[in-house]
Amino acid sequence: MVTCGLVLTGRSCLLQGHLGLRLARNLLPFVTPPPIEPDFTLNISHHPLRGLPRADMHVEEVAAGLRFARPRGILDAAADFRNFEVVLPREQRRPFDGRPWLMLALWGHLAHHEGAFLHGALCLLKGKLVLLLGQQQRGKSTLARLIGRHGGRIVTDEYPFTARGPEGLSVYGSPWPGFAHATAGGPPAVICFLKHGRRNEFAALNTNETIRRLIQTTRFFSWSPRSMPLTMEVLGDLAACAPVYEYAFVPDATAVTALETLL
What we know:
The protein is 21% helix and 33% strand. It is α+β, with helices and mostly antiparallel strands. The strands form 3 sheets. The chain has a 6-stranded mixed beta sheet, with helices on one face. It has a 6-stranded mixed beta sheet with strand order 10-8-9-14-16-15, with helices on both faces.
């Protein structure tokens, strides 16, 4: 599991203070418990800020790495993408829910350290991890909910990620959105690219077709071109680590029963 050390600095950054920074519950599995060394560190502080963009996000190169400025704060990413500094406006009083700051840090760290941020769903079914991928409106959230209702559970229904460990690539759930069990992770038992169909059908995909589809469902860290070949290497390994299918399914309980036959 990729771990993050959240470090709160500044007089107003008390975890439970009425003026302080409160972590959303679903972020807690991503906070490094001692004595584990975190893979990356996110330092958060409150200061008066001026000149922030009024909308969207502004990205620029700075001496130490990259700076991401948004209407509600700034994130500085070190060149090695292991240390991140977040500055929030002093007047901001809403709980820290990790977006976009921890999301950007995790995304950038993975892109530079043998991982990839995906667009899809990750579920546990019969004790095994099933990675469901596809572009919008292909049924990822629909099938994930069906799995959750019929004997499985949802790890995430939007942003799974893959990271390399001692035993090869593993897949995990991030806490945005649709979070359920972010601590669940391991090698995928099967990868399915989804589409709606008139009946439940599987078609095995070869490595080249799998990589082509993975490219379409991967969130490349485009602000850092040097990360692109690293991400492509990860996608090549992901394509070879489990059986891969195109899955045309009907949105009812039979879709889960059919998926169980692959496990």
